[in-house]
Amino acid sequence: MPHFTVVPVKDQDQSNYDSLEGINWVDYRDTGQDSFDHQDTVSSDGHGNHKEDSPFLSSADAVGKRTDYYDRNLALFEEELDIRPKVSSLLSRLVNYTSITQGAKEHEEEESADSPNMGTLMGVYLPCLQNIFGVILFLRLTWIVGMAGIIQSLLIVIMCCSCTMLTAISMSAIATNGVVPAGGAYFMISRSLGPEFGGAVGLCFYLGTTFASAMYILGAIEIFLKYLVPQAAIFHATDPLRSDSALLNNMRVYGSLCLSLMAVVVFVGVKYVNKLASLFLACVIISIVSIYAGAIKSITHPPDFPICMLGNRTLKLDGFDVCAKTVMSGNITELSQLWNRFCLPGNMSSTHCDDYFLHNNVTEIQGIPGLASGIISDNMWGNYLQKGEILEKAGLQSVDAHSAIEYFVQYVSVDITTSFTLLVGIFFPSATGIMAGSNRSGDLRDAQKSIPVGTILAITTTTIVYLSSVVLFGSCIEGVVLRDKFGDAVKKNLVVGTLSWPSPWVIVIGSFFSTIGAGLQSLTGAPRLLQAIAKDNIIPFLRVFGHGKSNGEPTWALLLTGLIAELGILIASLDMVAPILSMFFLMCYLFVNLACAVQTLLRTPNWRPRFKYYHWALSFLGMSMCLALMFISSWYYAIVAMGIAGMIYKYIEYQGAEKEWGDGIRGLSLSAARYALLRLEAGPPHTKNWRPQLLVLLKLDEDLHVKYPRMLTFASQLKAGKGLTIVGSVIQGNFLDSFGEMQAAEQAIKNMMEIERVKGFCQVVVAAKVREGIVHLIQSCGLGGMKHNTVVMGWSPIVLLTLQHNYTLHCPCNHERFTDGNIDVWWIVHDGGMLMLLPFLLKQHKVWRKCKMRIFTVAQMDDNSIQMKKDLATFLYQLRIEAEVEVVEMHDSDISAYTYERTLMMEQRSQMLRQMRLSSAEKQREAQLVKDRHSLVRMGSLYSDEEEEVDVPLDKVQMTWTREKCEAERKNRSNAPENFRELMSLKPDQSNVRRMHTAVKLNEVIVNKSHDARLVLLNMPGPPRNADGNENYMEFLEVLTEGLERVLLVRGGGREVITIYS
Q: Where in the cell is it found (predicted)?
């Protein structure tokens, strides 16, 4: 984006005031430049984010100047004055500055002397006039009036000018809401609607400006070849009926030469273009004044431009000088040149003449009857024609006779099929150019006053000129002359030139130079607009166009602009190029109105425009008019333009750099999120809308990296990008001391979430204890109705290492594909249907899509297993879930010796830990050692009553001893014999024996049926209600899941999450 240079005005009195405050001079820049360079800059951070250089002292300068900051009135803030400047020092450097628009250095030097003093007239009004008035006024407005009539022409002008007026109101509100640098409309849209909309519309505006240069060049070449030097044509038509192709080829050749010459001028130096701008503007004004002067003069002395009519058909006044069939030479009647065009030369016989020529008379009428002639009544209504039709005047007598096709070249015909919508697309470019004032905001003395006043006055002036010109043309010029696009009926004169005073050459020369000037302005502005977009770094493939010559001239952007403009030149038709750029400009204006409407409705705190005469309804009306005009003028061009903008938008969204510009779309998202959260707060979601909103609890290693990233893999497979996902973690310590670690942990988790393609939020808390942090996460995560309803966590590797390995380390990656296998669901107790819903959601992911789903349920002795299977199949059918159903019968059996002994060892371990009175951490280490010694048994021992001893070497456990622990250990040693006798006489609790028996039997059945399953989902038993049973609970889970590769324990809250109803 464009750079600003903030040039403070050195105030001697202010310097004295600073010295009284104890500050001689404050360097607001953090650039490392010489401190005596009294210039502050507003620069770009290299990523397109404009930022004002830090208005604080660097740490290096702070040490040397800390003593200068001392002030008895500011002693309370003296410790932070090295990073926070005084208000007086800040304001003295920022209150007086000027913003110089981006461009070549020579352009900045050219403008810098006068730019701060530009007022409304020179800075906004006249540049807007120069950009709005263009080639359409001189070359096509008379033709539009002739085809559409005065009434419809006025409607076209009012529609187009109303659209630009409403856009100017919205633009004025945006432009007065802060400084708008070079880039104009692009900067306003991108900072108001975000980088996606800004980049898409900015490129459309760039393409519109580029095609505008092509249109102006084609207009200038048309004037050159048709009216200035017709002899310069290189290609000549061999077939008179196909003369258009020769004209188009001439336009392509001379247009390419003119484009190359203009590109060289722009490349050599912009200052030459700026110097010639006043001359070009003078040509426009003189040409318009000559039209009004000629119209006034025509009241009494209309110009003499006779038109030759054959019957009611208009003849080309080319190749003959007398509008008659015969002429008198002395007393002798001779054949005229016109006779020779319709008959064989020198033959007086009528048998060798065209029938229409013989049966119709030749008459001569005035082409410019004048303002007082009353011709306005004939030109009031439209007369749309098809391509190839001959221009005819209503009211003249004509005999309908056959005319040979070879004589059609003698008549003035229509070269393009006309319609109201086509004329709208051709005229609209003559209403564009309203952004000239906002593009020069840095050159204005008071931009926030000059831009609205100058732009609205310029649009008002041009609208009055267009409306009055439509009425004058329809009141002064004959209808067939108006419909004659190239002036063939008036001796190949420019039609609007026939009305001008004192000579048609005023309009011809003035319009030629004005179109050349407008083309140069477009070729100058388009590359800088592309350079501004490229420097914002929102579209990666455009980065090369952000570079240029050493003086800042956008060389590469100019080259691309020339190539795109050459495409418009190759079209070679002004009437075909005009609708193209109309689409791009209309899309740009549409989003300017949208930006103003969004900002107004959101009422963001920073939306404080000085221009008060705006309203969101006017912006929406302008936006609607832009959209309507796009489809009115050319619906297929509109679809193409919107398609181009849509593709650019999606490209920036997926590939472009992320920007935070405080745009309205972000504000709109916040408002929509607030509205949605308030709606969700009304009540819990219906069962049909329930989906798991995950809180994933992760553990970080010592380097603050995610220890088990496959937890995120599972979350992404379960969610498939839908619903809420919150990834949380806990850092143990003090918040003030661990703040940096917390930020690093959040970034590490976000990076891992991006790798695993998990869309969600990250929250890391700092707590004195990990358990307290987890409790805080579970209680406080989420907002309103967007709170988690499902917690996903892995077992602590100290307490239960096997489950951690079984699940998190063996979870399939997102790029893996299971081509076969089963997902087994063991439905033991009803938990609200979550056990059914989770495998269905997993199967939506590509990893699990081809796995089959099997549902097992357990039948007791008094259950009818056959009926249970039928009922379960019916239930699944109503749930629309495809799965195999199997009912497993579990018969009552005696408790095995293995079950009894394992329960006994579990309780002995717990009793021993209580007797040792270890701390919580030491208790966990000791529990792990005891578990490792007794849990690693062969699978065969699960089904036998005999115990096989397995020797497992004990790991050394390092403990930290204190004085209290030492005394407690001595007491424990003195009571060791008694404690040992208690352990040996301990009998297991019958409740624990029953629980262990259930775990062993269920594990036996599950391993038998699901040992080869890809994933096993199982009801998780309820946790103990007292803390004393923690170790026993983990032992039960260990036994329940032994021998299984991949297990997911699920425990629902009891609320129904799946329904059979639609």
A: Cell membrane
Integer Cα distance of 927 and 931 in angstroms: 6
CA distance 367 to 305: 5
For residue 766, is pLDDT > 90? yes
DSSP 862: T
Measure the CA–CA gap between 909 and 80, rounded to whole angstroms.
Answer: 59
* Distance (Å, whole) CA 781 – CA 773: 11
Q: Token pair for residue 1006? A: 């599950």
Percent of the chain with pLDDT over 90: 21
Contact present, 807 and 792 (Cβ < 8 Å):
no
What does the mean pLDDT of the chain come to?
77
In angstroms, the CA 207 to CA 641 distance is 10
φ/ψ of residue 579, rounded to 5 = -65, -30
Q: Measured between alpha carbons, how far is 1053 from 699 in angstroms, rounded to an integer?
A: 25
Distances from the Cα of 512 to the Cαs of 221, 506, 587, in angstroms? 8, 10, 29
Three-state SS at 670: helix
Choose the weakest-confidence range: 361-375, 459-473, 747-761, 955-969: 955-969
So what's the pLDDT on residue 955? 45
Q: Are the C-beta atoms of 259 and 562 separated by less than 8 Å?
A: yes
502 upstream amide cis, omega within 30 of 0 = yes
Residues 902 and 996 sit within 8 Å (Cβ to Cβ): yes
Structure tokens at 532: 């501004």
Exposed (0-12), middle (13-18) or buried (19+): which is 655, by Cβ within 10 Å? Answer: exposed
Reported in sequence order, the residue ranges of 747-860 that DSSP labels E, i.e. its strands, are 761-767, 790-792, 822-827, 852-859
HSE on the CB side for 577, CA within 13 Å? Answer: 29
Least confident of 262-276, 654-668, 851-865, 909-923: 909-923
**Cβ pair 53, 43 in contact under 8 A:** yes
Rg (CA), the chain: 43
SS3 of residue 889 by DSSP: strand
Name the token pair of 858: 């357990």
Least confident of 355-359, 612-616, 677-681, 972-976: 972-976
Q: Which two tokens stand for residue 861?
A: 């002795």
Q: β-strands 40-44, 50-52: how paired?
A: antiparallel
Tokens of 83: 């990073």
The per-residue pLDDT for 811 is: 74
What is the DSSP track for 38-101?
Answer: --EEEEE-SSS-EEEPP-S--HHHHHHHGGGG--GGGGGGGGGTTTS--HHHHHHHHSS---PP
Residue with tokens 């079209």: 571
Spell out a b/e string for 940-952, using b for 16 or more CB atoms within 10 Å of the CB, else e: eebeeeeeeeeee
Query: What tokens were used for 46?
Result: 């290299």
Task: In whole angstroms, give the CA distance from residue 148 to residue 127.
Answer: 30
Q: For residue 742, which phi and psi values (nearest 5 degrees)?
A: -65, -45
Tens-place pLDDT, residues 633-649: 888 889 998 888 888 88
Distance, first Cα to last Cα, the chain? 53
Q: For residue 952, is pLDDT > 80?
A: no
pLDDT in tens, 536-595: 888 888 888 887 777 667 888 899 999 999 999 999 888 899 888 899 899 989 988 988
Stretch 653-664: mean pLDDT: 66
What is the reported pLDDT for 128? Answer: 86
- What would the two tokens of residue 115 be? 């730019």
Residue whose pair of structure tokens reads 């000059």 in the numeric block: 450
971 band by pLDDT with thresholds 50, 70 and 90: low
- Beta carbons within 10 angstroms of residue 705's beta carbon: 14
Sheet with 50-52: strands ordered across: 4-6, 40-44, 50-52
Cα torsion 1052, 1055, 1059, 1062 to 10°: value is -130
**pTM recorded for the entire structure:** 0.70
